[in-house]
Specification:
Blueprint (H helix, E strand, L loop, with lengths): L5 E2 L4 E10 L7 H11 L4 E8 L12 H6 L12 E7 L4 E6 L2 E7 L8 H21 L7 E13 L10 H4 L1 H4 L17 E7 L4 E12 L4 E13 L8 H19 L2 H6 L2 E2 L1
Antiparallel strand pairs: 1-11, 2-6, 2-7, 3-4, 4-5, 5-6, 7-10, 8-9, 9-10
Length: 272
């Protein structure tokens, strides 16, 4: 992992680290409860259920546009119908498990950001605990096929912008400038855009979306910048889960530094 600058008060509000693997056909809802016991019910205190997240695969044998737009029929093996979520007592971390995925989410609850290095260490520890659990209960083999990382940054209204026309100043590397509206009876109300970049050579993709949304307990109007990086593990992809996540982290951070207003970055007081 290449060294990158850090900020005392970055706009990041969520970081998700994930591993995708071949479905564990023997994994049941009962096993989720057993794993919760192993994680520790004193630390991880709030369980819940959620819908299954569809498996994602970054393919490079055809153009990305074709793989996203054409109609496809896929026959998949039977697997549990749900996703198990366990929230940490601090309310800033969440473990998600399903038959083909394991995720760790960090979500901002105050101004403290624990850093990627700390979160990746926690993710690796929890995932290692999960793989040992799978072996212990003879649930199959955790055969990894994709790594995945998502950053979400929030730029609240009034603090960073007033109307969507101001977004060009917040993310000049993405939105650029707007056509002049002098003399026109027009007021911009809505903007959103998305981009996808290959992480060369065929190591993965970085998907970028900038759109209006709400964040926080107060549901404050915000400009949200979401960057999701994912890619294959093995067969000329990343040689390990950690190598893939580091690759995605580097790509996301480097793009962030290029697209976000430099004066804003200075306000977050970059550490040397």
């Amino acid at each position: 992992m290449r060294p990158t600058p850090t900020f005392e008060k970055p706009p990041v509000v969520e970081l998700v680290l994930g591993a995708q693997f071949s479905p564990l056909k023997k994994l049941t809802a009962g096993h989720f409860g057993l794993f919760w016991n192993e994680l520790g019910r004193e630390e991880w205190v709030k369980p819940s259920d959620g819908p299954v997240i569809e498996d994602q695969f970054e393919l490079f044998d055809r153009s990305w546009e074709l793989t996203q737009s054409e109609f496809q029929i896929r026959l998949e093996p039977m697997r549990p119908s749900g996703r198990f979520l366990i929230e940490h007592r601090s309310r800033d971390r969440l473990v998600q498990i399903q038959a083909s995925r394991f995720h760790l989410n960090w979500r901002r609850r105050d101004d403290f950001y624990p850093s990627y290095k700390k979160l990746i260490a926690e993710f690796e520890g929890a995932f290692a605990q999960f793989t040992k659990f799978v072996e212990k209960h003879d649930l199959g083999i955790v055969s990894l096929n994709q790594w995945e990382l998502t950053y979400i940054d929030s730029f609240p209204r009034e603090e960073y912008w007033t109307t969507p026309a101001d977004w060009s100043r917040v993310l000049p590397g993405l939105f650029g400038s707007l056509f002049p509206t002098d003399g026109l009876n027009l007021c911009l109300e809505y903007r959103r855009a998305q981009w996808s970049y290959e992480i060369e050579p065929k190591q993965g993709r970085l998907h970028i979306a900038a759109l209006p949304g709400q964040w926080g307990d107060e549901r404050q109007d915000s400009l949200l910048l979401q960057m999701t990086a994912r890619g294959p593990i093995g067969k000329d992809g990343a040689n390990s889960l950690r190598a893939g996540l580091d690759l995605g982290h580097d790509a996301a951070v480097e793009v962030f530094l290029r697209v976000v207003n430099e004066d804003l970055q200075k306000q977050w007081r970059t550490k040397p």
